[in-house]
Amino acid sequence: MLPLSQTTGYAVRALQCLQEPGGHPVLVEEVAEYTGIPRSYLSKLIHKLAKKGLVVARRGHHGGVVLARPSTEITLEDLSDAIDGVAWRKRCLMGLLGCGGAAPCVLHEFWQETLEQILARLRSVTLADLVENHDPGVDRFRANHGLAEPASGLPSAHPSSLVEASIH
Amino acid sequence: MLPLSQTTGYAVRALQCLQEPGGHPVLVEEVAEYTGIPRSYLSKLIHKLAKKGLVVARRGHHGGVVLARPSTEITLEDLSDAIDGVAWRKRCLMGLLGCGGAAPCVLHEFWQETLEQILARLRSVTLADLVENHDPGVDRFRANHGLAEPASGLPSAHPSSLVEASIH
DNA sequence: ACGTTAGATTACCGGAAGATCATCATTGAT
DNA sequence: ATCAATGATGATCTTCCGGTAATCTAACGT
C-alpha cells in the first residue's frame, strides 16, 4: 500500500554502487551480486534509468554502468519518477470516485498537503545523501571499486581526476 | 503505490449506505447496484467486515446488512485495518533492507512521523463524517432507505426508536 | 416440511509487479 | 575477421489484487 515501489528501493541500492560521471563503469553483474537484486531484473531497471538519463550503460569489453550526473544531482524524486511514474500522486487517498475539484472528500486537503510534504522530501534527498547514510556494506563495496568514503557532512565530491575523463 | 487499497474505498462507499445498529438491514444487492461495486466482490468484503465486528449480516428472508456500531464509532482506521491489515505501517519508505532500529535510513524518522500523522487522521475520521461529506447521490440513496439526512455539524444520531430495537 | 430469499463460499479469470532463463546484439581486444 | 565480455531483450513464471460466475447454505414465510 503506502510505500514507494520495491523497484525504486532497488534503484537506490544499485546506484549507490556506481561511480560519479567519468568514473570507471561497474558491471551490472557485480551490482547484482552485491545488492542481491536479480541480475536480469537489474539489467532492465538500469536500462530504464539509462533511458531517463540518470545513468550511462555501455556494452562489450570494459562496459558497465556509470552515473550520468553527479550523485548530488540525482534526487529520490528522479528515481521514483523514472520507475513508478507520476500517476499515483493524483489519486484520492480512499480511491473515492467523485473526489476532485468539485466535490473533494473529507481527507482531500489533508492528503494533498501530506503528499506535498512527501514529494518535497523526495526532492531534497539526493543519492549522495543516501550513500553517506552508510547502508551497511556499501562502504566495503565502494572501497573495492575505488570509490571515496563519503565525506561526512559534505556533498560527496567526486575526485577531479575522474570528473572530466571520458568513460573510456 | 501510496494510497490505501481500492477495497478500503469500497468499504467506505458501501458502509455509507447502511443503517445504524438496530436499523433496517439493507441488501448487499442494493448496495452493489448503487455503489457500482461488483455484487459478489462486495459480498466478500461485507463478510470480512462482519468478521471484524463492524457490520452484522443476516441471510434469508428480510436479511441484509446493518452497522454493528454507530457510524460515529467506526473510524477509517477500523476499515483500513480490517481490509488491508497493519503490516504496511512497518515497512521502510524505500524498502531498504537494513533500515530499522540499528541503522535507520535517511528518511526513516521523516517517514515514521508522516505515517503517524496519516494514522492519526484515519483514526479521527469516522463513517459519520464521511456520510456528512455528501458523497453525491448517497443522500438520495439514504432517503430511499429511510436514513436520516446527516445533521450538519452534529454526530449523526440514530432515531431512538431504532437504537434498542433488535434486528427483527 | 418446503420453497424462496437472502448472504457465504468456492473456483476461476485477468492484469500488474516482481523475478527468472535463455538468447540476442554490441563492443573492444586480438 | 573473430572472439569473448557485457548489456539488452523476449518469453515465461509467480504472486497478489480485483473481479466474475456458479453453487451452497442459513433464515424466514407459508
Write the layout of secondary structure elements.
Two copies of one chain form a homodimer.
Chain A: H1 6-15, H2 28-35, H3 39-51, E1 55-58, E2 64-67, H4 76-84, H5 108-124, H6 127-132, H7 138-144, H8 160-163
Antiparallel strand pairs in A: 1-2
Helix pairs in contact in A: 1-3, 1-4, 2-3, 4-5
The structure holds a DNA duplex (30 and 30 nucleotides).
Strand order of the largest sheet of chain A: 1-2
Overall outline of chain A: elongated
Percent helix of chain A:
40-55%
Write down the Rg of chain A: 18 Å
Q: Tally of extended strands of chain A?
A: 2
> Could you describe the largest sheet of chain A, including whether it forms a barrel?
2 strands, antiparallel
- Given helix and strand content, the structural type of chain A is mainly alpha
- What is the CATH top level name of chain A? Mainly Alpha
Oligomeric state, counting identical vs distinct chains = homodimer
H/E topology pattern of chain A: HHHEEHHHHH
Chain pair sharing the greatest interface: A-B, 41 and 41 residues
CATH architecture of chain A: Orthogonal Bundle
Distance between the termini of chain A: 43 Å
User: Approximately how much beta-strand content do the residues of chain A carry?
Assistant: under 5%
Q: In DSSP terms, counting alpha (H) and pi (I) runs of 4 or more, how many helices of chain A?
A: 8
Count of discrete structural domains of chain A: 1
Q: Give average pLDDT of chain A, whole number.
A: 85
Residue windows where pLDDT falls under 50 for at least 5 positions of chain A:
153-168
CATH superfamily of chain A: Winged helix-like DNA-binding domain superfamily/Winged helix DNA-binding domain
